[in-house]
Design goal:
Quinone Oxidoreductase, Chain A, domain 1; 342 residues; Rossmann fold; 7-stranded mixed β-sheet; alpha/beta; single chain
Length: 342
């Protein structure tokens, strides 16, 4: 089968011919119908986040059709439309048993620690498959598995509640979902902060208050629009010290700041002024959880979460096209979400 693979830090991904994966009794073979390109994939290529081995097939936002199911798989069958939870875990340890499988000591991420979805086929444990309704196209289903799921989990970590005011920094794939989900959870004001007017216009169509950081300090804008109180929740989805700092400064007393964007840079904090004085919480959000995905898919199936505009571009399984998308992501200039359709 064809697969586009990471072959080394700073090097372009390469198209390779590799064997179709074999499956065990508890695994499924999925024919990939869509694989999203995430900013994390650009981080892997750049060496910001190291992968486990090379060559490696990237791609952790995956949807497709079950081609083959092992004898022990009971939750899905051949021919089912599925989206794939990208965390491969033991299912037995304390963390898995308590619903916090992202901390499983044996945990691996597809497209990072094992071969992912930039390929014609992928093999995963059957329990990682979630049924994808016919009403959700594969391209949109793939993005749900990371962009939307990560935003959903971040809002859960933020303990969002009806009446909250929210600021979302970074209005790409994650941010567009975060805006809609925050509104669905009862936020009365949602500020969308970015430097891309096209993304801001899309967020505004979903009920957000657009704040273009090219026009001035977004913290000042948010404070002005909230009577100098600030927001209750701020999500930072970019991974830049500047926007992390702005998110922290945007919240008022008892604010919750959730950091999601990956970075290798340090964040400097004024401990009293920005944390202790207002009892602000600085919260890390890592991945998402399998048990959250059925609810997320229901949100999308019933159009509470509209992901029809999240996919800004579709490309073939082609190394050159994928590398160009990763180049654009490194410059924060890749549209909302690009999805590979093999």
């Amino acid at each position: 089968m064809k697969a586009v693979r990471f072959v080394g830090v700073g090097r372009p991904l390469e198209m390779q011919e590799i064997p179709v994966p074999e499956i065990t009794d508890d695994e499924i073979l999925v024919k990939v119908k869509a694989a999203g390109i995430c900013h994390s994939d650009a981080h892997y290529r750049a060496g910001i986040s190291p992968v486990s081995f090379t060559p490696l097939t990237l791609g952790h936002e995956v949807a497709g059709i079950v081609e083959k199911a092992g004898s022990d798989v009971t939750n899905v069958k051949e021919g089912d439309r599925v989206a794939l939870h990208y965390l491969l875990t033991c299912g037995r340890c304390h963390y898995c048993s308590s619903g916090n499988e992202q901390f499983c000591p044996d945990g691996k991420m597809i497209g990072h620690h094992t071969n992912g979805g930039y390929a014609e086929y992928i093999a995963v444990p059957g329990r990682n498959a979630v049924i994808l309704p016919e009403s959700i196209p594969f391209e949109q289903g793939a993005t749900l598995m990371c962009a939307s799921a990560t935003s959903f989990h971040a809002l859960m970590k933020a303990r969002i509640k009806p009446g909250d005011k929210v600021a979302v920094y970074g209005i790409g794939g994650l941010g567009q979902s975060a805006v809609q989900l925050a509104r669905a959870f009862g936020a009365i004001m949602v500020f969308a902060v970015d430097i891309n007017q096209e993304k801001l216009d899309l967020a505004a169509a979903h009920g957000a208050i657009p704040v273009n950081a090219m026009d001035g300090d977004p913290v000042d804008e948010i404070k002005n629009r909230t009577n100098n109180r600030g927001v209750d929740v701020a999500l930072e989805l970019i991974g830049l010290p500047l926007t992390q700092k702005q998110a922290l400064q945007s919240v008022g007393p008892l604010g919750r700041v959730v950091l999601v964007g990956l970075t290798d840079k340090s964040l400097s904090v004024d401990t009293y002024k920005e944390i202790l004085g207002n009892e602000v919480e600085l919260i890390g959000s890592n991945d998402h959880l399998l048990h959250e995905l059925p609810s997320l898919i229901e949100f999308a199936a019933h159009k509470v979460l509209d992901v029809s505009n999240v996919v800004s571009r579709v490309i073939p399984l082609d190394a050159d096209a994928i590398n160009k998308t990763l180049d654009a992501l490194e410059k924060f200039d890749a549209g909302v979400r690009t999805v590979i359709v093999p």
